[in-house]
Amino acid sequence: MRRVASFAWLRWLGVVLLTFSLGASSPVTHGYWQQLFERSPEAVAYPASFYGVSEASTSIGQTLWQSGQRAVSLHYLRLGVQQGDAHAARLLADYIPSQRDYWRSQASLLGDETEILRLAADLLATDPDAAVATLLSGEQDVRKLPKMQRQALMRLLFNHPWLQDQELNWQQILANEAALAPDSIWLERQILAQQLASTTGLKWHTGACSAQVELRVEGGQGREQLYAWLLQLREHPMADLGLCWFEAQQPAQCEETSAGRLRCDVDTQRYQVTVAAQQHQFASLPARANVHGRAMSISAASSFSVWVHELGHMFGLADEYPMAPALAAAFCRGDYTFNAQNLYITPRDADALDADQVVAVQRELPWQAWLQQPIAQRQASGAEVLGSANPEQIGLFAVDTCEGTGFQAWRPVAKTTFMQQHEVGVVPDLYIQLMRQHLLGYSDSHLK
Q1: Which of 12, 300, 353, 374 has the most CB atoms around it within 10 Å of its CB?
Q2: Percent of residues, the chain, with pLDDT higher than 90
Q3: Are the CB atoms for 244 and 234 separated by under 8 Å?
Q4: β-strand pairing of 290-292 with 295-299
Q5: Mind listing the GO molecular function terms for this protein (predicted)?
């Protein structure tokens, strides 16, 4: 009889070990093992635990805990963890509250998706980099996180500067979020990111690019802010400029100058936009945005309207509000090579011109092809005084750019534009044409 029992025991153990060996390729659950071991714990569970079946150790530990044998239970659960069972670690986290964090971390290390996501969420507030590293330790389903934690991780992943080089990057994880919420803002940004990273870039038009704009982001939440602005720009008049946008892989390095301006190490020979983040090294931000050559430096703390105003500078438009005295003196004298498409400068004492002089001025206006009325008014003396009469038509209107200097600035429209007050947001159709004219001239000059 003993020999038969021994063979029965070996047969049971063989079945157990065979089932265990198939577990890696079949969906064997802890419930299955629990039922199997409960039928014959002496003949199956304990031998399987002895031979390294982690689920057996875990099942014994769970059964003993429920029967009140807690000291022995903890021994088998710890053995289950040593044998690689994440479920044993989760049970220990529940059974020993004082060691909950430790056993959760062990479950995470053993690949338990729930604990990996939980640990990443807990780390968000204290160690974001560790949260990202934890999340990237496997292909977790972010949809299992509560909504607020999921959104926090999406934001963290989206803005993390080194994720673009990871095999499992934020785009792949965002795909899960997109499947969960088709109308999610992350879906729009994921699509935008894929377009910006492609060889053809992003454009809201057909045909050739009037200019290529390279985007370089320093980190933090700058990337998220930049993408929000780009999505707004899609519905903005500037979308008609024919621009092609690309995102550079190299992060920008930015600092605040002594004058309170933001300056980033961008290549001034190319069109670039850099959005800097409010990170600890920029605690004094928001620094003032500026355009240097063909490069822009702007803080994520700025507004969309400020960004559009700075884009206006990049594409040939000058400020229409009173410039700082030193800048106004140099600009209005013509010391800069910047040829403003929206301004024409005359000496302030040139208030009486003859007809030939008026014609000469008109020929020099960047917007001469769009004029809808005379640019000067004839006086009783026969002299011509610069300035148009109808504020509703394109002509010549005084503006305060050169205030405090010996010069007068003129623009083509009477109404306040986004180059005078950025928050107004008014971009006349003519200004789109003038920026397009500037971009065409830039392209032509580089082809020669």
Answers
A1: 300
A2: 31
A3: no
A4: antiparallel
A5: metallopeptidase activity
Mode of pairing for the β-strands spanning 262-264 and 272-276? unpaired
- Reading the block at residue 248, the tokens are 């550079």
Q: In whole angstroms, how large is the CA radius of gyration of the chain?
A: 34
Q: Which residues contact 10 (CB under 8 A, 6 or more apart)?
A: none
Contact 134, 119 (CB under 8 A): yes
Q: How far is 193 from 178, CA to CA, in rounded Å?
A: 14
- Please tell me the distance from the alpha carbon of residue 220 to that of residue 300, in angstroms, as a whole number: 9
End-to-end CA distance of the chain: 102
Q: Would you put residue 84 in left (φ > 0), alpha (ψ -120 to 50) or beta? A: left
Using alpha carbons, list the distances in angstroms from residue 260 to 248, 255, 294, 435: 26, 10, 20, 28
- From the DSSP assignment, how many helices (H) and strands (E) are in the chain? 17, 12
Q: Reply yes or no: is the peptide bond before residue 161 cis, omega within 30 of 0.
A: no
How far apart CA 177 and CA 150 sit, in angstroms, is: 8
DSSP string, 244-313: EEEE-SSPP-EEE-TTSBEEE---TTS-EEEEE---GGGTTPPPBPEEETTEEEEETTS-HHHHHHHHHH
Structure tokens at 349: 């004492």
Q: Reduced to 3 states, what is the DSSP secondary structure of residue 410?
A: strand
- 76 residue type, one letter: Y
Tell me the pLDDT tens digit for each residue of 368-427: 999 999 999 998 888 889 999 999 999 999 999 999 999 999 999 999 999 999 999 899
Query: How do the domains of the chain map onto residue ranges?
Result: 32-110, 114-182, 198-315, 325-440
The token pair that represents 438 in the structure block:
């500037």
